[in-house]
Every structure is written in structure tokens, then in C-alpha cells.
Amino acid sequence: MDTLAIVILNYNGQPFLAKFLPAVLANANGHPVYVADSASTDSSVSFIRTNFPDVRVIELPRNEGYAGGYNRALDFIHTHYERPTYYVLPNSDIEVTPGWLAPVLALMDANPQIAACQPKIRSYSERNLFEHAGAAGGFVDWLGYIFCRGRVFATFETDHGQYDDNRPVFWATGACLFVRSKVFHQVGGFDASFFAHMEEIDLCWRLQRIGYEVWTCGQSTVFHVGGGTLHKSNPHKTYLNYRNSLFMLYKNWPADGWLWPKILLRLMLDGASSILFMQLGEWSDIWAILRAHFAFYGHLPTLHRQRKQLQKQQIKEVKLYPHSIVWQYFAKGKKTFAEMIN
């Protein structure tokens, strides 16, 4: 049985595959490499089959985003191949490094309670800086806003070894997510309604609610281009981030009676963030935030059913960062993870 399956989801990403797939294969340590193609309209599939015959290609019938695409791909591997102990899901725009696999696998082997893990994520273009998508492990504040060790909002720290430890975190990035396969299928994988963005945070929250742990491994490093499928300035990305954050918060917030006050405060803060987009003249992003809120309202019946089901399954209360990172960052001037924690 293969210990690990390396699975890359691709949508019209042939340039990234040409650039980064050789390093993945060179550093796969004998583990099988899969590319799950989400009905690309470029020549990705023929390019892989011509140039990388050792790669196992899974052709998906349509583009269902990160969440639905990986659900289909990992179900296919689970059904048609020898079932691995772990999956690792590097984005197509991830540059792996020699020895990137061994430290993470050793950490997860040593602690069966670790269901998900990530390496350090540094920027491909500014290689000493931590990258936006995950940095050195992520956290969630009491209003559902996310931040990372090494990245808080637009402040990116230089990696000088301050996060080289192995430790629990709240969420591990989907840019290069290691996940225990048995547990992934046990919880039903990603929530496909998210399509893309924050589905890995929702997954990590659910994993912790049933007693598992999420870690970051400081002995492994990869580099991330970022925005390979949706650029950070794309209004659809704004829409998905705002909508999915509300989805995640409603589904997973503890049953303590404070859900709706927090949701209403979040909606107000989201609205206030529109002022920044207004100052920048980015009206399409303001419309994206409004659409995200209306999509949240429309999805409430489904979210409520999911919330009730998750509450029945829960065996462990999950702790969030007990302060507002918006207040800490913008009002108190705390720009780094260390300042936030202190």
C-alpha cells in the first residue's frame, strides 16, 4: 500500500505544470503523483501525458472548484487505487523543495491524532517572506477572521527561523495540505458548496470538533506563487472569501447563544471594509461583498441543517483566538503574530 498520494488539482494551469511538476516528481520519494484535471480548456491533459507519462491523470467531468474537485479526485483514488494513509494536496503553483515530505510524514506518523498538517509556505517571488495562503499555520478570531503565523492582513514577516517549530494550529493551508485519508473520508471531505477558498479552514474546524488535531511542521518549506487560478484582485475571489467566511462561522460557531450577535457584527464589519474598496475605486469588489451577504442569507436553511448535524457529532470544544484581529491590527497597531498573541 502507498503511504502517500500526491494529488494536484489543475484547471487551465499548463504553464504551472510545466514549471513546477518536474520538482514534484523529482522529490516524490517514490510516492505516486496524480493530476486531477477539472475539465481544462487548454492542453493540460495532453501535455501531461506527453511529457510526464509517470503521472496518473484523473479527468474530472467539470470544474467544481477546489472543494468539489478534490472531493471527486480523492474519492476516485480511494475507490480505484490502493488506499494511501495520507494525501498531500499541493497547488499547481507550488514549488516543492528537497526533503519536503519526510518531516511532515514523520510528524503525523508519530501522532495519530494529527489529521491535517502543513509545511511553511513562503513567497515564490519574495523568497524570504511568508506567503499569504497559510504562512506558518493559521488561526481564526472570535468573529471568524483568519490570520497566520507570519502573515496578518497585509503584513508579511521575513522568515528568520522564528516559526521552525512543530505545533498545533487552528487551520492548515489548502495550498499544500497534508491530510490523513481515513479521516478525510470519514468527515465527508470538503464542503463542496464553498467551491474555493476557506474550505480547508472549515475542514480543519470540523476535524478538531471530533477530537483530531491540526499542526504545522516547521522543518518543511515550499514556495507559493499564489493566485494561480483566481488572482487576489479578482472580485469573484472577494465574493468567495466573504461568503465562505460567513458559511464557516455559521456552521461551526459553538452553541453558546451568541451566534447571531456575532454574525450581525461580522456583517457590519464586512460592510465597513467596503469603504476601503470605495477609496480605491474598486466598485466591483463592493458589489461582490453585497452578493456574498445575500448568498449567505439564501443558504441559511442548508447551513442550519449542517450546523445541527455537526453539533450532534461534536465531542470537543474548539478554542478560537479570543480577540478581534481587526481591532488589534488597525486600532492597536499590532502587526505580527507574536504581537497578537502577547
UniProtKB/TrEMBL annotation:
Signal peptide: none
InterPro entries, sorted: Glyco_trans_2-like, Nucleotide-diphossugar_trans
Domain annotation Glycosyltransferase 2-like: ranges: 6-166
UniProt-recorded name of the protein: Glycosyltransferase family 2 protein
Gene Ontology MF terms: glycosyltransferase activity
Family from the record: Belongs to the glycosyltransferase 2 family.
Positions of transmembrane segments: none
Alphabetical keyword list: Glycosyltransferase, Transferase
